[in-house]
Amino acid sequence: MVEGESVNAVVRIAPYEYIHITNLNTHVTQLVLGPRTYVCLKDERLVFGPTQMVTVTRMTYCIIKNPVMWDDSGAPIIDKSGQVKINLGDEEYRFHQDPFALYPGEQLTDTIKDLPVVAANCALRLRAVEEFLDAESVRHVAGEEWLFEGPGAITSTYWRSPFALTSSVSCYHLRYFSNPFCKENSWLIWLVHITFPSCTATYYPRKEVTIVGPEEAQIIEINSALCLKATRDCIDRNGNSRVFGEKWLVRTPGVYLVGAYEVLVETRKAYILTETVRIFISQHV
After folding, report:
1. Residue 58 three-state SS
2. Is the whole model's pTM more than 0.90, yes or no?
3. Closest among 101, 118, 8 to 49, alpha carbons compared
4. Where do the DSSP E strands lie in 150-246?
5. Separation between Cα atoms, residue 134 and residue 91, nearest integer Å
6. pLDDT tens per residue, range 19-55
7. Are strands 44-52 and 36-39 parallel, antiparallel or unpaired?
8. pLDDT, tens digit (0-9, with 9 covering 90-100), for 117-127
9. DSSP for 119-163?
10. How does residue 3 score in pLDDT terms, banded at 50, 70 and 90?
11. How many CB atoms lie within 10 A of CB 45?
């Protein structure tokens, strides 16, 4: 059967399919789910379908335009004429669930997309497009930016030992540096232990937030530092207040993820001073 057919039409709806039927007298469109065989009355017309239900698998999501309104019991709200109510111009993000049908007026925007996955030492830069309260009761205002960071807790430890390591260090990143301040055969070992509760973190989008782009962490090695600059008044990762345009150095070796209101100016190397080497430092006013 084709759309628009009406007089005593028989519509065979397979499992996980649906149709939209419009009453020509009341101009109300209703949703009919399969599996069933539907016989149209004289004053009814098939306006959509049969078509497959929307299937959102794990690690995917879709965007529904003009979503239907639901009551507290989870049933669609029906107006006095018998038509389902929809939020015109609104959007709703739907994630993994059972296959569902689109009510009259609802539209599937674009295609079903994969959820963004953030690896360790990476992040997504997010920006609020409207004011909202997130799941942790934190209020975000329009234009605010922040980072959704990947998993991993990073701790750095310095260990000086003339002995060889005998235990397994598969979860450690080791770097050896000769230490001129110690006796012969002594070494300075930079031990960075990275604990990952999982390899990746999954971000679930929402209509109030847009993804600006991905961010990658910077590596701070021994005898080096990151020169950062504040793009607005903010609090840095160490809890220090920064004002717009202020610059500072981060010297702690390890992985550093530049904040939402920070920008990397340059990476600086340390100067090694000996008995025959000296430097002159002048202060610019």
Report:
1. coil
2. no
3. 101
4. 153-160, 172-178, 187-195, 200-202, 209-216, 218-220, 224-230, 234-235, 241-242
5. 17
6. 999 999 999 999 999 999 999 998 999 999 899 999 9
7. unpaired
8. 999 889 999 99
9. ETTEEEEEEESS-EE-TTS-EE-TT-EEEEE-S-EEEEEEEE-SS
10. low
11. 19
